[in-house]
Amino acid sequence: MAQSRSDLLPVILGGDISCHAYAREFHEAFGVRSAILGTGFAAAVEHSRILEKHLLPSFAPNQLLHVLLELASSAPGVRMPVIVSTDALAEALEAIRDELPSQFVLPIPSREAFSRACDKSEFMALCAAHGLPTPQTEIVRLAGSDVIPPTQICFPVVAKAARSAGYSHLFSKGFRKVYRMNSQAELDELWASLRAAGFSGDFLVQELIGGDDTHMGALTLYVDAAGSLRLFSAAQTLLEDHAPTMRGNSVAMVSRPMPNMVEKVAGLLQDLRYTGFAEVDMKRDPATGEWLFFELNPRVGCNSYYVVGAGANPMQIMVADLVDGENRPLVCAENPCLYSLVPDCLLMRYLTDSTLAAEVRGLIRDGRRVDPQRYAPDMSLRRRLDVDLTEWNQLRKFRRYYPRPTESSF
């Protein structure tokens, strides 16, 4: 842990276990505790020593602004980097950014770049322009009552909200994060139920790319205030969460060098006039071996601690830029690393590729395994119990939602 900096108070928006990872990154780099603003907190966050909790009734922009201004008045002159854990929170922060005093540091893109990055049609056009392939995709507009024409993509297909910020509130009504659809009748039923629930946003229909969870991947990026790429890190997913509202969240990954992508991704971000953190989701097509780009999320990503294991602390790079004004060179974090939030016995059950399984066993044997929840300075007896229960609860979740590996991960 570094010497504590009195000029820094990180602020984290959210309440899940990813927020503890962000706080750990700040604590390791600068020896500081973070303030966390949430409407509720996971057990591993609730009893953390490196987080100061602030309970909010909601994340409505006016409520969020009020609490942030109170924090600022209690710590005059202290710089406050604000980290968000979801796209919806990034959107809420975007809505109030012009009303925040300069002591707040926001590693998110401008409003224009934010909108362009979240526009899936524009993002896919930019990917094509920079030689980054994407899956065949259609955008379905659910606003109004016009008849939605049949998809032209061959079944089975994948359906998901174009922007999670305006959709996640429907999880409590039984809607899923991602759907596999085998027929037009299933799609039509989904459109009708979404409209009946009052959803008027856009949905994506995409070709289903084969391959299990190990074909998924992610890039973690940071672009400095001048628009230059300063952090590039890549990982191959080993296992994803399969609970209906958590699909797409990796629970185990291995870092991977992907030098051929650096220049292409940097060019795409420059075209967007993008600054701040970004996370890109990908999947490797087993038929061609190439990575297909799915979406860009305007935040650091819930699994950013894998980057620390790979050799770079994202928060340290961001603070050097936005707080200290340092002009640092690009860091490509690519040291061999296993990142995992689940018991090893569970992870190994889902690794059907013997070469990959041997690599993972080697990383565990060599001490190259990182778990952001297990942080020695923050492992009281109560929190150790919380973390143990959280990780072993994964056995129950996988038994219910994904009892055995499949070729498509559905």
What does this entry look like structurally?
By secondary structure, the protein is an alpha/beta fold. The protein is built from 13 helices and 17 strands. It has helices at residues 17-30, 43-46, 61-74, 87-96, 111-118, 120-129, 184-196, 259-272, 305-309, 314-322, 344-349, 354-365, 381-401; strands at 11-13, 34-38, 51-55, 80-84, 104-105, 137-141, 157-161, 178-181, 202-207, 216-223, 229-240, 250-255, 276-284, 291-297, 331-333, 338-340, 369-370. The strands form 3 sheets. Strands 10, 11, 12, 13, 14, 15, 16 and 17 form an 8-stranded mixed β-sheet that branches. A 5-stranded parallel β-sheet has the order 3-2-1-4-5. Strands 6-9-7-8 form a 4-stranded antiparallel β-sheet. The protein is globular and about 60 Å long. The mean pLDDT is 94.
What's the Cα radius of gyration? 21 Å
Largest β-sheet summary: 8 strands, mixed
Q: Give the integer mean of the pLDDT values.
A: 94
What class would the helix/strand composition place it in?
A: alpha/beta
User: What's the shape?
Assistant: globular
Number of helical runs? 13
Distance between the termini: 41 Å
| Sequence of secondary-structure elements | EHEHEHEHEHHEEEHEEEEHEEHHEEHHEH
The tally of strands reads 17
List the main descriptive attributes of the protein structure presented here.
13 helices, eight-stranded mixed sheet, five-stranded parallel sheet, 410 residues, alpha/beta
In short:
This protein has 410 residues and is of the alpha/beta class. It is built from 13 helices and 17 strands.
